[in-house]
Design goal:
The chain has a single domain, classed as 3-Layer(aba) Sandwich (Rossmann fold), CATH 3.40.50.880. Helices cover about 35% and strands about 30% of the residues. The protein starts with a strand and ends with a helix.
């Protein structure tokens, strides 16, 4: 398949998701949205994977390219191109589908319990995860479920995953993240951390291998659904 990997800067790549796509032999094209340019028409891709960023989904005055990206995602939804959005990518997917986006009741930075809903347990993508798991998160915003969409997972704070249409998914947690990415983020935004960086990264080191296994399984399930 030909897959568009949509990123928002050099420190927020596709992580293990890009690794899975390449290992499966798919063609991976990257669009770093803030750097400008536009991808080919969305209908020319077999799937889109849209990742995170430090910006928020309603900061159009600061980041003029957000509207352009939301329009691309809206076209993907209209043309039934499979999409998997992660964190900011999920928020922009919700926005593109007409749902609200806004600050969460409180930020989630670190490891938080995420539980699948009944619909999530039977979902072809989210259903590969354990019914309840400690998921890595780093976000300040959340979103509503688009009209006709389905909530697939929740934390105590907010929605953690949804599906809209037949082949578009958004996940709030960072299933793609690598330990190297976490180290970079901790250096870039130390004031966001709930504990000091050393403790934060020590916890990550004990969890990252099993978390990456779940992330790879989630991405593989999405790619299988996209190719069916």
């Amino acid at each position: 398949m030909r897959i568009l990997s949509v990123t928002h800067g050099p420190t927020v790549p596709g992580g293990v998701f890009d690794e899975v796509a390449r290992a499966a032999g798919h063609e991976l094209e990257r669009w770093v949205v803030p750097f400008g340019g536009v991808p080919q028409p969305v209908s020319s891709y077999d799937a889109l994977m849209v990742f995170g960023g430090s910006m928020h989904p309603d900061q159009d005055q600061e980041f003029g390219w957000l509207e352009r990206e939301a329009e691309v995602l809206a076209r993907a939804l209209a043309e039934d191109v499979p999409v998997l959005g992660v964190c900011l990518g999920a928020q922009l997917l919700a926005r593109a589908a007409g749902a609200w986006v806004a600050p969460a009741p409180e930020p989630e930075v670190g490891w938080f319990d995420v539980a699948l809903t009944t619909e999530g347990l039977g979902d072809p993508v989210l259903g590969v995860l354990a019914p309840q798991t400690e998921a890595f998160q780093w976000h300040h915003y959340t979103f509503g479920i688009p009209d006709g969409g389905t909530e697939l997972a929740r934390s105590k704070v907010c929605t953690q995953a949804f599906r809209v249409g037949a082949r578009a998914w958004g996940i709030q947690f960072h299933a793609e993240v690598t330990l190297e990415m976490m180290r970079t983020w901790a250096t870039e935004d130390p004031d966001d951390l709930p504990v000091d960086a050393e403790e934060f990264l020590a916890a990550a080191e004990t969890r990252i291998a099993s978390w990456n296994d779940q992330g790879r399984a989630l991405c593989a399930a999405f790619l299988e659904a996209a190719g069916s």
